[in-house]
Amino acid sequence: MKRIVPLLAFWVLLLAVSGCAKQGYPSGGPKDTKAPKAVVSKPQNETRNFKARQFFIEFDEYVVLKDADNNVLVSPPMKQKPEYSTRGMGVVVKLRDTLRENTTYLFQFKEAIADFTEGNVLPSYEYVFSTGDAMDTLMLAGRVLNARNGKPWDEVLTVMGYRGDDTLPDLVTRTDKQGNFAFHYIPEGSYRLVALVDKNRDLRVGDDEAVAWDTLRYAAADSVDSSRMAQLHISAPDRRAQRVLKAEFKSRGRIVVSTLLPMQHPVLEGEPVEWRLGAKGDTLNIWCRNELCDSTVLILTDEGLNDTLRLRYRAPKPRRGHMQQQQPTAEPLMRSLCSGNAAFYDDLRLAFSAPVHAAKDSLRAEIMSLKDSTVKYCDIELDSNGLQARLATSLHSEENYRVRIADSLFADLYGHATDSLTFTLTPKDYGILTLHVDNQTGHALVIEVLDSKDTVVAQQSLNDATLRFSHLPAAEYRLRAVVDRNADGRWTPGDYRLNRQPEECLLYEKALKLREKWELEERWSVGAPKEKPAEKRKLHTHEGGKMGMLPMGTIEQKKND
Fold it and tell me: Which among 54, 104, 59 has a CA at the least distance from the CA of 84?
């Protein structure tokens, strides 16, 4: 019994100590979301008369490097890249290149450093030193925007500054997500600026790289206000060479050829054929005079094309579980292009699968109103290309119609006559946009109507002062004017090799609300000088300033029911 009491006391004491120990264990805590913070550097940041061959930056926690060779920008660039490594709670940078005399060097760590435990990235850190007695302190700032839509480019851009005509730049930096950039600690002088998607990190403009540049030179200053900020417009080059993408028999006697770019004046030699160029110019529809032709050799020539096409018809493979080959379903010679909810003022059109060579003298269609069974007849007008026809009639919105077209009205190049055709439709009320344009740019214009996703839903070249867009569903739209300097009816991107800037796009910032049964009448003075200058804003710090898009042109609205 005397031995049991001390033993029990020992176990009680052990449990008490154990309980106390458990209470002292860490129970975790909030997740670390802070980026590493630099606490000291050796030699000290902004050192003058720098003679060292390396420098060390210590942080408040252990860090790792993330693709330092690409994410650390050195300005001016070094021919031999520095070596980057971690040591303890810091980063070591060993200099392999010979430093220039009396030069200020800036090292920009762009998301190159993260903490060891959670991977929190330090967005940017700058280390600067001078090899002379003085430190350069001037700056230059600007913004790079997409030349097509005035928005920031969807990739980070490398921006370079050149004092002379050297191959390598004197300054290097990158844009932020808003397209802003700023050079810090730069010497006095004026600079030519180039921004690009530097895919291979060689600080040179490649043939296929999107690029922005300016013929102006920008002077370094101790501060930059918004009126002196560089504004560059970037575009991807259009260096695509014309070529045939696909050439094949769609059925016996029927061939389709598609090309990368629109064809200008195609010429076909070889088998006797008849052809039509598609609306976009990049598709050639071909019909052999021999309806059962299943092999041929054609020579296609056009601007940038001189191709020999050796073609053979291949019957479709049988479907799984079927022993016999499936015969392709013949496309009807005549079909309707009228959708069920077409605008009531839109043309009713027919399409033919082969060119029409013959037609009856009297071409008429029967149109019945299903509301009261009244019947009227309208003329059918054949297009000059023989592939479409128009029904010359007018309809009321929101009414149901049945259209009947008799058989044997048309015959194709093979002598096949059309079958009868019946279809129904209910025309809808769409909106109409009438635009009066005062062109003050001195160049041809292409006016584009954009939807909420910046997709071009309609466009017209400005031949007269008034444009009419007649088939627009009720929605919000924006307007964009392309200053069409080469008068080719489309927007042309820049070409750095030819020193050709991208064609300017003038955006109207206000959304236009179009409703059903409404005609919206607008007046737009394109390229007119702004009534009020932009508010000036000075930048004194080493943080790049942000600029929004400035309005271009003025516009007046009138709504007519």
Answer: 54
Task: Using the 3D structure, point to which of 115, 130, 145 is the last residue of a domain.
Answer: 130
Report the DSSP beta bridge partners of residue 269.
Answer: 299
Task: Find the length of the chain.
Answer: 561
Instruction: Kindly tell me the sign of the dihedral angle through the C-alpha atoms of 458, 460, 465, 468.
Output: negative
**Of the residues 425, 443, 466, the one at which a domain ends:** 425
Q: Quick count: other Cβ atoms within 10 Å of Cβ 370? A: 12
The pTM score is 0.71
| Residue of 488, 352, 482 whose CA lies nearest to 413 | 352
Structure tokens at 129: 């030193």
Beta strand pairing call for 334-336 and 190-196: unpaired
CA distance 349 to 341: 14
Q: How far apart are CA 245 and CA 240, in angstroms?
A: 12
Q: Please state, in angstroms and as integers, the Cα–Cα distance from residue 55 to each residue in 40, 91, 136, 459, following that order.
A: 11, 8, 19, 58
The residue written with tokens 């010429």 in the block is 267
Lowest-confidence segment of 240-244, 424-428, 454-458 by average pLDDT:
424-428
Q: What secondary structure letter does DSSP report for 297?
A: E
Token pair, residue 141, equals: 């700032």
Q: Give the helix ranges, DSSP H, for 472-544.
A: none
Residue 236, pLDDT above cutoff 80: yes
Residues contacting residue 80 through CB under 8 Å, at least 6 positions apart: 96, 97
- CA distances from residue 501 to 147, 160, 193, 215, 378 in whole angstroms, order as listed: 9, 18, 14, 9, 51
Question: CA 80 to CA 147: how far, in whole Å?
Answer: 35
d(CA 256, CA 248): 6
CA distance 481 to 488: 14
The type of residue at 304 is G
Point out which residues pair with 300 in neighbouring strands.
268, 307
Q: What is the pLDDT of residues 343-368, one digit of tens each?
A: 666 788 999 999 999 999 999 999 99
For the chain, the domain total comes to 4
Q: What would the 3-class secondary structure string for 62-116 be?
A: CEEECCHHHHEEEECCCCCCCEEEEECCEEEEECCCCCCCCCEEEEEEEEEEEEC
Averaged confidence pLDDT in the chain: 86
Same domain, 469 and 536: yes
**Do both 442 and 363 map to the same domain?**
no
Residue 541, pLDDT above cutoff 50: no
487 shares a domain with 517: yes
Round to whole Å and give the CA distance between 431 and 345: 10
How would you label 383-407 residue by residue, b for 16+ Cβ within 10 Å and e otherwise?
eeebbbbbbebebeeeeebebebee
Please tell me whether residues 461 and 488 are part of one structural domain. yes
Q: Residue 330 and residue 278: Cα distance in Å, rounded?
A: 21
Model confidence at 426, pLDDT cuts 50, 70, 90, reads: confident
Give the C-alpha separation, 432 to 393, whole Å: 19
User: Cis peptide leading into 43, omega within 30 of 0?
Assistant: yes
The predicted model gives 485-510 an average pLDDT of 92
The answer as to whether 313 is a domain residue is no
